[in-house]
Specification:
By secondary structure, this protein is α/β, with parallel strands linked by helices. The protein has helices at residues 4-21, 34-45, 80-85, 102-116, 144-148, 172-181, 199-208, 222-228, 238-254; strands at residues 24-30, 50-53, 72-76, 91-94, 97-101, 119-121, 124-132, 135-143, 156-165, 211-214, 217-219. The protein binds ligand 48F.
Length: 255
Amino acid sequence: MIDETKITRAILENAFKDILDSLDIDVAIAGGGPAGLVAARYLADGGASVSLFERKLSVGGGMWGGGMMFPKIVVQEAAKGILDDFGINYIEDKEGQYVANSLESVAKLTAKAIDAGAKIFNAISVEDVMIRESGITGFVINWSAVGAANLHVDPLTIASKFSIDATGHPTEVCHIARKKVGKLNTPSGEIEGELSMWAEKSESLVVENTKEVYSNLYVAGMAANAVFGAPRMGPIFGGMMLSGKKVAELILERL
Ligand code: 48F
């Protein structure tokens, strides 16, 4: 028999289990765009406990909209293996340039991350970090609705050995960390700031800039270019996915 109380109990008990299992983990990720989702999948594949917190109701970040809401993304040769790894269909448009459906891409990145064992929490924002002598030790989180409604509600915390800022253009976690710790591992110690569109440069720089920006805090995806002062790239997504894979590899080496 269908019983509303049993439905409610099933939801609460299972949701509580997921969040309780995330209180002390290997890796916490802020942001569920392509970089964060790819990182989550490869980290989970590598045996890490990983939870991802996404502010919006839907993960996928800037990928849904393809280019100017035409729902297609472009991926270059270097990242074709990642499309294959996630089972994303594509056509070869020109030699070394592939086109995929942006909706399918988000759906499959998400599904594969969850299948691998990553936990994804939507509608939760990372609003602060925890800091100890060893560096960043986790996230301070709250319901996004609390911020949207401007409610005065204290947050909760997630402890993690490593954290990833995958919040895209605003690079929110690095901004918070910069304010609290003084200097980041950037040339000036500050957030260097994103430069204008230059896809060719940006696609390789986003992988190069994927690194530890403060003790135990890594930056991936567009956030990496915003922190280290590199250009944006528009609707080519190979660099985002390669960055997610690289940050997973860097952290797995240390775990
Ligand atoms: O912006 P986003 O897709 O970042 P990304 O993975 O990929 C960038 C591309 O989409 C595109 C691009 C490619 O040419 O430049 O912009 O680097 O995803 C970032 C996600 O982080 C969420 C935000 O809602 C988005 O879904 N986010 C941002 N700040 C927070 C957050 C926060 N403080 N807490 C939780 N989620």
